[in-house]
From TrEMBL:
One Pfam family it belongs to: Tll0287-like
UniProt domain Tll0287-like: residue ranges: 38-190
Recorded superkingdom: Bacteria
UniProt-recorded name of the protein: DUF3365 domain-containing protein
InterPro entries: Tll0287-like_dom
Amino acid sequence: MMKKVIAVSALAAAAAATLVGCGEEKAAGIEPKIYTDSLFAVMKADRTNYTKLIIKRLGPAGAGAIKPDEHWKEYDNGALLPAQMFRAGAEAVSEMTDDFTYSLQSIWPINSQNAPKSPVEKEGLEYIAANPGENFYGTEQLGDVTYFTAVYPDVAVSDACTICHNEHKDSPRTDFKVGEVMGGVVIRVPM
């Protein structure tokens, strides 16, 4: 489905370029939806690959060479959990640009700081949980700035995800299955 979205986005961009070539008024920048869809494609690929190729392959269920743990710094072979790796990336990006922000959130957060903080985030997370495979798009006013806010499903791609969440002492939900929506990636772009 994501490939289809990107393909449609590429066609839209090509169509816009054609219109400009025919003397039409030049469009101002990339559409927020195309921008956030593209960002999410990169984030999803990185997150999935880290989970499957590093945590699953080298962790306790694989070679046992690393110890994925929320307290990873306490171990010589400790490794960040996928959610922690995602947060580290978001924090690093926020130091480089304010053109967008992103975070991993859930209506069933293990860590309360990953709960939705705005009505649009909450609406988006509830929407993607109730409508598997669909994204949510909205706008919101925070302070003096209007944002385009997109929420994408974060799906359990491995039993490493479901086991960790289902067995964590602070998890408010303990029946996740591989393939289910566990939360969402929230991307916010100032307009």
